[in-house]
Amino acid sequence: MKVPPETSPEATTGATSLIELTDDSLDVARVLEYVTDPTCGAEVLFVGTTRRWTTDTRTGDPEVSGKPRETSHLVYEAYREMAISQMTQLAETAIERWPVRRVAILHRVGRVDPTEPSVAVAVSCPHRGEAFEAAQWLIDTLKHDAPIWKQEHYVQSGPEWIHPDAGSCRCADAPPQEHAPLGSAVGDRKTG
Question: Do 37 and 102 contact (CB within 8 A), yes or no?
Fold first, then answer.
């Protein structure tokens, strides 16, 4: 089921957002085109793709820890209504915290093969620093908070659900303002 794009203008900023949770392939060129804005000098696009090889980080088993595992594919599942709601709230929060003119958050559900995009997050801002900050906050918070779950299917050992804190998530190590929960005032870093 493809959820139709939701475009919601912010009355005070004129900013808009594109939010999608879809079974279909992500068109990253369309995402970048959506966020392009003539009043902005920076568009940042993050695309998360399925890796073919993942370093095994399981501890306690010296036979496998640190060795590569081959991924045949990923499967994403989501609590769709809540995920769309949280993705929309993320976009609104980014627009409040940074001078974002356009934001796009798209995520796949279902099977995603190696090298295929799973997620795309893009923003446009007047300057690159704020665009990078907003995009990084969006992808980090999306991965951590949205009810979207990833199951990796390994060639060697079969399927395994992956916790949102796995991989590059460093939320526990970051100061509170770096990963403020949705709806909190902590980390309000709007610069424009």
Answer: yes
Contacts of 158 (CB under 8 A, 6+ apart): none
Structure tokens, 88: 């929309």
d(Cα 161, Cα 54) in Å, to the nearest integer? 14
Angle between helices 128-145 and 80-97 (to 10 degrees): 150
Lookup result for tokens 């199951």:
151
> Per-residue pLDDT for the chain (192 aa), expressed as one digit of tens each?
444 444 443 434 689 999 999 999 999 999 999 999 999 999 999 999 999 998 887 666 777 778 889 999 999 999 999 999 999 999 999 999 999 999 999 999 999 999 999 999 999 999 999 999 999 999 999 999 999 999 999 998 899 998 776 655 555 455 444 444 454 433 333 333
